[in-house]
Here is the input.
Amino acid sequence: MTLLPRRATAAATALTLATVLAACSATGDDGAPTAGTSPSSPSAGTADDLPTLTIYSGRNENLVGPLLEDLETAVGTDVEVRYAGSSELSAQLLEEGDRTDADLFLSQDAGALGALANAGRFVELPSGVLDRAEPRFRDADGRWVATSARARVLAYDPAQAPEVEGMTSIDELLDERYRGLIGYAPTNASFHTFVTALRVDRGEEGAREWLEAFADLDPQAYEGNNPVLDAVDSGQVAIGLINHYYWYERVAEEGADAVSARIHFLGADDPGALVNVAGVGVLAGSDAEQSALAAVEFLLSEEAQQYFADATAEYPVVDGVTTTVHDLAPLAEGLAIDLNSLDSLAETLALLDEVGLT
Amino acid sequence: MTTRVATASPARLGRGAGTRRPPAGLLLPALLAAAIALLPIAYLLLRTAEAGWPAVWDILARERTVTLVLRSLGLAAAVTGAGAVVGVSLAWLVTRTDLPGRRVWAVLAALPLAMPSFVAAYAWVSVVPGIAGFWGTFLVLTASTYPYVYLPAVAALRGADPALEEVARSLGRGAWATWLTVTTRQVRPAVAAGSLLVALYALSDFGTPSLMRYDIFTRVIHTSYRASFDRTPAAVLSLVLVAITVAITVAESRSRGRAEQARVGSGTARRARVVRLGRATPLGLLLPSAVAAVSLGFPAAVLAHWVVRGQSAGVDWGRLLPAAGATLWVALLGALAATALAIPVGILAARYRGGGTRWIEHATWAGHAVPGIVVALALVFLGIRFAQPIYQRTPLLVFAYAVLFLPIAVASVRAAVAQSPPSLTEVARSLGRSPMQVVREVTLPLAAPGVAAGFALVMLTAMKELPATLLLRPTGMDTLATRLWTETGVGAYAAAAPYAVGLVVLAAVPTFLLSQFAGDDGARVLAADRAAGASPPGGAR
Here is the structure.
């Protein structure tokens, strides 16, 4: 046997928490090897001594990392990015309050932006910046703006449900032959947004009617859009309710031949074809507000919009930019739903709770 | 040599060791540890108080809250029961029988600790979709947590004095009756402490049930962040978990109550009589191989499949290596911090068992079933207000690991101290050593393997931690778990696979050491014997 345990213990007893903490402050953060994920070293501002721009990104690093490197060049200041989930970051920003280091918040969905806007955590964006986006893609009070749009679609297994290709309305899903064969993500913001759109479009009673009929078909609940797509792709379910770009990402990852699932866009005026957004807001009390505003401007520039269209297969929010890579169906004008009404989540959740879709 | 029978001693201990006042050198650090562990709960109370009673009552009285609490308790009970049976059976097979290859099985049985349960869950549900639901959750949680019982059970079985069993047999008890009345009693404290970890893991886990699409209580907490961006319901519901945890730990400590100090005299380090499996050997081999196949073989095969499939395959070493380095570094510091805090608490809990010290121990456990995201937000709230200079720096992340995993270390330290003979500390005291000298020179060296095991256990658990790491890590730092999260977030399973493999390989190292510590127990007892014979106990080894 070795003496290691004994020595380890002696060491452990010698160490109080204080010395552990002191040890790691002494080596500083550089003591921990960094993955070089931030576009620059966290050294003090090099470019014109502008304060570092700190971005909290609820969007995945694999999706927006390259764009944020371009952003750093365009804005001309050091940029630090922290990645986590949109809702976790929004909770973190609410806990941090006005002490936060964050200057900019990139969110995966409108709900997280709405929560921070309602808590008074965002500054009002100048109209020159806001006006770049189409009116339906910005907060009515100008506190956040969309950077890209995504559509709800039906993913389907052509072997089990080829008829999906001809569907125009979500009502066509309410068919006995799909019992137990529809996958959805009940805890995912994208599904909540769809239900809110359903409520706005059809009224509370109309929405309840659809949801009850849907719940009656024993739909299969998954944790997110990707697991739903997995289930469709493996034939476990015939149809899945997802956002369009998950399918495009999958095809890019595995090659078109390896993905058996197909997607279908419903009719433009159907709640099932709702268009939701990812967006950005500038934190109140930011010490780099000028850079933050410049960053928002960059995200709405032609270059960045082209990036979203091509790299993440999303819809641009600025007129005149279209994808050069993907075979994206043109985004219809769609439902006239105020995106801010999409933060009436409490009612949506209560309704889902009542009909048992949680 | 005197060998006192375990059940005869508590009364004496109760008066002797139990009511002595603990030295300030132990009490103060233990109080500090308890205070640190209670920080997240203070935050939860603050958030709840803001909401006001009517709102709190509304949240608690929802039918769904009640249903899901019961369902979570059911799951925790099932996983704990199965984990205890599997853990003790495997421990018995590798320590007390002539099972072929039992040294290899002894290591394999500990290794599932290295497999993150969310990876195992994903592997299962992606290949066998029909397993989703209660049975899948039950299977994966049991397979990934039973080592919490197995490891202490191995140590206890190796450390238990076979003389007691021999006496029972010579007095006419049969093999089964001896096992039930003597052996299980000797291992009960160790098994109870391990089972507690299993139960709280099952209560607090979110990844496995959500991948398995089994709706349990933690999901309500997560949904309230994800869907309503409201922190109040999450806080109220987390307090429900705290209450449940306190109830469970109090029950566990009662169950330990009289059965503790299984060994008071120095005993002997002889190997227990080996049970010959004979014709039952194939049956004996079936259990460890089935457990290894379910908990290790299957997930590993799926990981291998991920690595070879997909266009994004190919390892980004420039990312993998720094992430592995960062994982090791922060987990190492976290384990050091948690172990340092756990030592005084564990010694108090084992040696000075009064009402006050019992509550110190309960305090360190109270927050253990609260989901990581809640603890992370508590430390965000407190950190940015009261520890701004270390906010989103390594020290606060290390602190978070200490808060999250302190009970794991406490359980190991306490069990190890409780198993070492208190008579030695009494001898040292009678020879004029001060209480703190006794701690340094007798108690800790004797408990060393247990302390080291606690350290290793915290380290490998911290490596797999995700929610607190995401919110509290230094900007730009990636661990293997955060990279895994990033890659799976866009469905890039092939790109995720190397990080998952890296995590399993790194975590396998402390796990392997753990299985060795457990095996070393015989040697530890031998050392205890020598210590009993030699006058300077600290230098016995």
User: Anything to note?
Assistant: The radius of gyration of chain B is 23 Å.
